[in-house]
Design brief:
Number of domains: 1
Low-confidence stretches: 1-20, 223-236
Oligomer: single chain
Number of strands: 0
Radius of gyration: 22 Å
Distance between the termini: 36 Å
Shape: elongated
Mean pLDDT: 78
Order of helices and strands: HHHHHHHH
Largest sheet: none
Number of helices: 8
């Protein structure tokens, strides 16, 4: 009887989540909450300046992309809270988070296309310096997010982390595009650069939608699994 008891105790111990895994998820959760707040602030700043001051539609496109990614960070934080309480629900919440994110990004992309077409048909003045300073500020915030993502120790990085890092890098790239259009307007007063960049952003968002749709189509919900675990299953 004593041997059976020891065996059962050993079995339960093996199935308990290791403390380092819980600490890793907490660190991941705090990181997602932090970058969610930064990204949301940057997006709202661009919308406010774009509509009420500079008149730049490309700023709105950048904001749409950023807020959509910020929503992803918030959803991942929500998913982490859920799976820390009940690991069996990880795939369930991940699927719903991806679908909501897809719908939000599709709506934002449609608005950007509509605004870019309207600006093409009825062009007007864009205040380049306001667009430049606002985009430069948001670009610095995006760089901060990327830096924060790289601060996470290598052993604690998983596919969730890689997904967020990809979106953070894409936010920075889109901001660079808007910054270029602002520089062109400042130096040449060629306001068409604004709606042209808006179209570029809209098509880029369309590409991200395609990538996200392919993941949904193939039921690729691996965002909730660690690299080591994924490689282990792949070799099996």
């Amino acid at each position: 009887m004593r041997n059976v008891h020891v065996h059962e105790h050993h079995s339960l111990k093996n199935h308990s989540p290791p403390p380092i895994q819980k600490d890793s998820k907490r660190q991941e959760l705090h990181l997602y909450i932090f970058i969610f707040a930064i990204t949301l602030f940057a997006g709202l700043l661009e919308i406010a300046v774009g509509y009420f001051i500079s008149g730049s539609i490309s700023l709105f496109g950048d904001a749409t992309h950023g807020i959509s990614d910020g929503f992803n960070y918030g959803m991942l934080a929500f998913i982490l809270v859920k799976i820390m309480r009940d690991p069996d629900q990880e795939e369930y919440w991940t699927q719903r988070g991806v679908w909501i994110s897809f719908c939000l990004l599709a709506l934002g992309d449609a608005i950007v296309f509509w605004q870019a077409i309207e600006r093409f048909l009825s062009p007007h003045e864009v205040l380049g310096w306001w667009t430049f300073y606002t985009t430069a500020t948001c670009l610095l915030l995006n760089v901060l997010v990327v830096w924060m993502m790289h601060r996470l120790p290598g052993k604690e990085r998983n596919i969730r982390h890689d997904s967020v890092l990809f979106h953070a890098l894409s936010d920075a790239l889109v901001s660079v595009g808007v910054l270029i259009s602002a520089i062109i307007i400042i130096n040449t007063n060629w306001y068409s650069a604004d709606w042209i960049m808006a179209f570029v952003i809209a098509f880029y968002l369309l590409f991200l939608l395609y990538k996200l749709w392919m993941r949904i189509k193939h039921e690729d919900w691996e965002i909730g699994h660690d690299h080591d675990e994924h490689e282990h299953h792949h070799h099996e």
